[in-house]
Amino acid sequence: MADQLYLEDFDYFKGAKVLHYFEFLEPQKVKDEYFVEHDVHALTICDYDGEETMLFYFDDDLEVIMEFEFMIPSQAKEKAAEDFQGIDIQWKNK
Length: 94
Description:
Layout: E1 12-13, E2 16-31, E3 37-48, E4 52-58, E5 64-70, H1 73-83, E6 92-93
Antiparallel strand pairs: 1-2, 2-3, 2-6, 3-4, 4-5
């Protein structure tokens, strides 16, 4: 990636508190439920006051391009590992 997204500067996305984040060195391709391919530049795992955990996939403008809902953060990490196989995602904590 040419420019860093500086996710460490963000504490919230869509009203959810950022727990973990990761920025890819190079954009990664992933397909959504309609088989549309997206370039993902970064990921965050966020929490809505302990009620639900969200996994957000971002484009290069930090716009959410895909989102998934889970009960706990470890489920979100499993989903990211499944979608980006072969990449060692080293989550950073907030």
